[in-house]
Amino acid sequence: MKSMDARMEQDSVLKVFLRYLIPSLTGMLLMSVNIVMDGIFVGHRLGGVALAGINIAVPVFSIFTAISLWIGIGGATQYSFALGEKNVKKAQQIFTRSVILVITITIMLAIIAFIFRVPLAYLLGANDETLPYVMDYMNVLLLFGFVLTLENILSIFVRNDGDPNLAMFALIATAVINVILNYLFLFVFNLGVRGSGLATMSAIAIGVLILCTHFFKKSSHLKLAKSRVTGKSIKRTLSIGLPSFLSELGMSVFTMGYNIAIAAVAGTAGVAAFSVLNYTHSVILMLFLGMGSAIQPLISYYRGAKMKSRETATIRLSVSVAFGTGLVFFIAGLLFADNIVNLFGNFESEIHDLAVLGVRVFFSGYLFMGFNFVMMTYFQTTDRIGMATFITVARELILMVIFLLVLPPLLGATGVFIAIPISEFIVATSIFIYAYKKHVFQN
Question: Domain ranges in the chain?
Fold first, then answer.
């Protein structure tokens, strides 16, 4: 069997790309199932208000994911670069520092958030009707959030260590177990929203155990090594990973902003309708994130090995796949919006009609979103942190907020749903102009 170095440097770029892309997409898709299945089970078992409560608590999930991506991508980019340079010891030290950082930060934030969990719930958009459901779900996330971040960072490093299939298998197992436990906890043991959260975190814990089997493989470079956690090393990791953190943080801002904006124009029915859209969006978003996760190890390795032509060929392939995927989702949203909404339950006509409108309008943003995600990851991995940060901040922390303030008073619910598509289009245009001027797609 070829070594990791031989596969990366000798196989065709397409073959290497697909070897990472397929497991990454599959894994990310099934990772999103952990959240979506909570929504499907809760929507059918407990109704629209309970579903809205979980959706309000989801930003807590996103914040923990953001932390693991911040440190994970920042560390893994350096890790693969070091492997490209054939410096295994340095790579192991980077891995060790990253694990220490992510566990420490997660636990500290969870303690603070748990102390102020009621004010936090209201800040996220809860009201008296949804608060009990928000608290039940959020308490579980805060208590066991470190399990989520540990699974995410191990998955990233296992993928960067040349074993994307194990990372995929761990996420498949997590998703399947989550479905089984959600059914048992909600429909058999009647544990309510809390049971849905426990099902998800229990499944993630099993995923961690599966990922840990990579340490025992002969081909594994991943080992805990003696390493100094210095201010310089932390700064380097956090700097590279910042766009990934802001991207996931932007998802929290997106959820909060949309909840508040849709509640202002359509009340609790609007929040419930957005919950359906948001669960669907989380699946598609994970697929785009999976594309970025697939190219990150490749671009980092080729940078370290100074293989410019393979780096350029990889980003060209990624852009093509991202645009094609976005086109498919856009068409699916136009044709099957009603079917997508019905998947989450039989809602009142007001909720159903708003959700269908949301899917048809919002899905137009996927024409540009995949391209934006792939290019953000590329700029991040090639040390153009400024451009990568601009993409992330502009998408969901500046333009989206501006459009959510301006458009709903003019267009009502349509103004809420169209804010992201317009933001994505503007950012994609900016990226294209920048890439053309910098000859990004040329060898």
Answer: 19-437
248 class by beta-carbon count within 10 Å (0-12 exposed, 13-18 middle, 19+ buried): buried
Instruction: Extract the tokens encoding 359.
Output: 């899917």
- Quote the CA–CA distance of 135 and 152 in Å, as a whole number: 24
* Backbone Cα Rg of the chain: 21
- Cα–Cα distance, 239 to 83 (Å, whole number): 20
Backbone angles phi, psi at 39, to 5 degrees: -65, -45
- Residues 377-410 pLDDT 10s: 899 888 888 898 899 889 878 999 999 999 999 9
Q: If residue 188 lies in a helix (H) or strand (E), which one and from where to where?
A: none
Low-confidence ranges of the chain (pLDDT < 50): 1
pLDDT of residue 422: 95
Distance CA 114, CA 139 (A): 7
- What predicted TM-score, i.e. pTM, was given to this entire model? 0.74
Two structure tokens written together for 218? 């002969």
pLDDT at 205: 94
At 46, list the tokens. 């407990």
Question: What's the pLDDT score for residue 224?
Answer: 77
Cα dist. 98→234, 245, 283 in Å?
9, 14, 27
The confidence score (pLDDT) of residue 381 equals 84
Structure tokens at 222: 């991943």
Calculate the alpha carbon distances from 360 to 259, 354, 403 in Å.
Answer: 18, 10, 18
